[in-house]
Structure formats: structure tokens, C-alpha cells
């Protein structure tokens, strides 16, 4: 069996580059959409949304400068590890567009843990689930353009994709389904724009309320993936043989690397890196049998094969 795990690197490669599909481009669309009062129809207005985003950015900068604490009774080790990572990675004051999509959710976690009442905690949960996630999902969706990236896939790439026995994507879009046309099962590990949770939302906003998983905390992803097989985790854990990982950072989604490390049916992994340092980093996350059988491959050489 040969399986593929693919991430946003695919969309960046064929969807206009980082200037269209990268983190900064997505966050800039969040800002633009709010400024254009795009969500008034949903009862979310420019002034309120801007104030919410400003508070999140302000809190994030306090995290970076180590000027916000966590009450000892609410503290936990994984949070401190993430806060430490953020302080090492972000060395200057950040604007919204400087902050990683899921890193922004750390702000709501810190605010939640410092809340003084149930009402404050509910407000933090609402910001996380009903404001930040829908806004970011809409910015990724990009008025539907993200679902049309497949039109730029070379035929040689499509021929390559249909040779897999299973494809697991971290992307919310449906580009892979469009080109493999049922010849290969495709699983959306973090949800899909076409799987809606809300039926009363106007059609042009439904994708904002899909079953997407978005959080800074890999254990929370693990729990959500585990609760519902709509994310394809049962099939993910049944993988055997060789797995290729393309367009996926070695530093995100620890829960997936944990699952791969526990899988004794995997005999090898081809990890496609952008920077050579990523080939070293992946070995800190993949363990077990598959961790001992990693082959490093240059992803740019891989993409160049399909030009």
C-alpha cells in the first residue's frame, strides 16, 4: 500500500504561491473582509469584529513579551511549551498578518484561562469558535478560488496522484477530489468546506461553518479527530507500507505524527522538505518503525517533475 499525506504546500505550488495561499495572504484577507463589512448579513459588524481582532493581537503581543501570566491553577505543560515556542519565534511586535493562523488561537486560550466569570469564559469560546475560525476559514476559501486550484494541476501530477491507494489531505478544499474522480479515496483529516455544520446559513457563507478543525493545541485536534470518523482517522490508522508526506510542516499537527509513530504496519516514509532543516526536524516527531525508515526528498525537485 502507498499513501499520501498532503498539506497547504500543494495549494501554494499551484494556487498562485504564498502571495495568494500563504499565511500572510490569508490574514490580509481577514483584515480586508472585516474592513469591507462583509459579514453584516450574519450579524457580525465591522466595528465589533475589529475590536475583537485588536484584543487578540494585543494579547498575542503580551504573550510574545512575556507580559501575561497564567493562573497556577489553570496552567498546564503543553501550554507553557507553546508559549515558549511563540516567544522564540516571534521576536518583534506583531500585526495580525504576522501571526500564524492557529497561533492566533493562543490569545483566546490565554484570555479564557484568565477569565473571572463564566460569562467571560463563554465570550472567549464564542470568539474562538464563532468569530476567529469562521473568519479565517472564509479567508482561506477566498470567494471559492481555493476550490479551483485543481484547474492548474498538470496532467502528469494528476496521473501521479491516482497511483496512490489513499490520499489524506490537511486542506479544506476539494481540489484533489476533482482530479482523482473517485479513483482514489480522499480523506479530509481536518474537515472540508463542503461538509457543513449549519443549514440556516446563507449559501455564500456556509463554508465558514463547515466541519473544519482549527486550533493551536494538537491534543484538541486529536480529540476532535477521534470523536467522529468523518475525518478519516480510522482509515489513517490502517495505513500500511509506505507513506509520502508532501507540503506539510514537520512542526505542526503533532497528533498525526504520533499516530504514524504508533503504526507498526508502516515500513517507510518519504518526507518532502522545503528547507533542509525540516528533514532533521521531522525526525524529532516521527518515531517507531516509520521513524527509522525516513527518506529525505527535496520538494522543489518533486514539483519540477510536473512542469
Give the strand order of the largest sheet, numbering strands 1, 2, ... along the chain. 3-2-1-4-5-6
Residue windows where pLDDT falls under 50 for at least 5 positions: none
Task: Compute the number of strand runs.
Answer: 6
Order of helices and strands: EHHHHHHHHEHEHHEHEHHEH
The residue fraction in helices comes out at 40-55%
> In CATH terms, what is the fold-level topology of the largest domain?
Rossmann fold
Biggest pleated sheet: 6 strands, parallel
Task: Return the CATH class of the largest domain.
Answer: Alpha Beta
The CATH architecture designation of the largest domain is: 3-Layer(aba) Sandwich
Number of domains: 2
Q: Beta fraction of the residues?
A: 5-15%
Shape: globular
What's the mean pLDDT score? 96
Total number of helices = 15
Question: How far is the N terminus from the C terminus?
Answer: 27 Å
Report the C-alpha radius of gyration, rounded: 20 Å
Q: Which structural class do you get from the secondary structure elements?
A: alpha/beta
Write up this protein.
- It is built from 15 helices and 6 strands.
- Helix content is 46%, strand content 10%.
- It has 2 domains: 2-18 and 147-304, Rossmann fold, CATH 3.40.50; 21-142, no CATH class.
- The radius of gyration is 20 Å and the shape is globular.
- By secondary structure, the chain is an alpha/beta fold.
- Strand 2, helix 9 (175-180) and strand 3 form a beta-alpha-beta unit.
- The protein has a 6-stranded parallel β-sheet.
- The longest helix is centred in the middle third of the chain and has 24 residues, at 118-141.
- The chain has helices at 8-14, 18-21, 23-35, 46-64, 77-89, 105-113, 118-141, 155-161, 175-180, 218-227, 233-236, 254-262, 276-281, 288-291, 299-304, and strands at residues 2-6, 166-169, 186-188, 241-246, 266-273, 294-298.
Amino acid at each position: 500500500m502507498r499513501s499520501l499525506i498532503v498539506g497547504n504546500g500543494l495549494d501554494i505550488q499551484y494556487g498562485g504561491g504564498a502571495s495568494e495561499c500563504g499565511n500572510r495572504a490569508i490574514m490580509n484577507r481577514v483584515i480586508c473582509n472585516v474592513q469591507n463589512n462583509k459579514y453584516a448579513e450574519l450579524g457580525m459588524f465591522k466595528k465589533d469584529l475589529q475590536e475583537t481582532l485588536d484584543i487578540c493581537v494585543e494579547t498575542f503581543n503580551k504573550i510574545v513579551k512575556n507580559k501575561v501570566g497564567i493562573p497556577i491553577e489553570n496552567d498546564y505543560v503543553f501550554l507553557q511549551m507553546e508559549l515558549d515556542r511563540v516567544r522564540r519565534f516571534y521576536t518583534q511586535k506583531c500585526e495580525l498578518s504576522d501571526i500564524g493562523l492557529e497561533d492566533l488561537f493562543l490569545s483566546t486560550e490565554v484570555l479564557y484561562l484568565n477569565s473571572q466569570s463564566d460569562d467571560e469564559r463563554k465570550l472567549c469560546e464564542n470568539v474562538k469558535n464563532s468569530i476567529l475560525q469562521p473568519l479565517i476559514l472564509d479567508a482561506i476559501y477566498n470567494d471559492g478560488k481555493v476550490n479551483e486550484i485543481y484547474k492548474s494541476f498538470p496532467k502528469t501530477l494528476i496521473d501521479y496522484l491516482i497511483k496512490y491507494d489513499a490520499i489524506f489531505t490537511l486542506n479544506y478544499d476539494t481540489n484533489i477530489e476533482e482530479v482523482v474522480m473517485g479513483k482514489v479515496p480522499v480523506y479530509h483529516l481536518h474537515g472540508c468546506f463542503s461538509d457543513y455544520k449549519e443549514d440556516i446559513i446563507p449559501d455564500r457563507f456556509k463554508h465558514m461553518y463547515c466541519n473544519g478543525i482549527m486550533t493551536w493545541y494538537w491534543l484538541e485536534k486529536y480529540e476532535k479527530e477521534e470523536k467522529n470518523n468523518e475525518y478519516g482517522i480510522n482509515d489513517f490508522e490502517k495505513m500500511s507500507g509506505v507513506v509520502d508526506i508532501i507540503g506539510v510542516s514537520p512542526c505542526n499537527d503533532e497528533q498525526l505524527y504520533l499516530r504514524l509513530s504508533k503504526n507498526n504496519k508502516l515500513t517507510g516514509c518519504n518526507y518532502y522538505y522545503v528547507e533542509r532543516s525540516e528533514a532533521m526536524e521531522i525526525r524529532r516527531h516521527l518515531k517507531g518503525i516509520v521513524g527509522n525508515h525516513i527518506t529525505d526528498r527535496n520538494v522543489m525537485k518533486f514539483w519540477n517533475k510536473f512542469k
